[in-house]
Amino acid sequence: MPPPPVDPRNASPGTRIAGRPQPSEVSGRPAGPVVPCAGAVVLDGAGRLLLVRRGRPPGQGLWSVPGGRLEPGETVEQAVAREMREETGLEVDVGRLLGTVSRPGPGDVTYEIADYVATVCGGQLHAGDDAAEAEWFGPAALVEAPLVPGLLATLRSWHAIE
Length: 162
Description:
Elements: H1 23-27, E1 34-42, E2 49-54, E3 63-64, E4 67-69, H2 76-88, E5 90-104, E6 110-123, E7 131-137, H3 139-144, H4 151-157
Parallel strand pairs: 1-6
Antiparallel strand pairs: 1-4, 2-3, 2-7, 5-6
């Protein structure tokens, strides 16, 4: 026998009431914590995109643009430069905001990622921190690579790549 229906007037916070949208469904905002992150979209002179193979979850083993969580007191632009230095060994000039995406994390966490155009201005390319590898990808290699879900479509929708 199914449980009795929940009276909305007596429901505790977070109780799902059949037929009613949840707060996140109404507002469009995630119900759980939102973690601010930053990413770098870097193209070289030959039009190749810089990617890192993720060494840790989420997306472990898949290729993505360099990036990660903001540290306390850090601006998004500072996070882009720091993540590039840590994951690729490269120094960058951070340019304009290219776009933002939301990606699910563990539990009810949502990663809110702001991706910026960046231009290399120094350093030597090598994988570091939580990046297992760092490489440049031409257009043909991009479509064959095991990428994090949605990366290729998102970059194309932003006209960052062909």
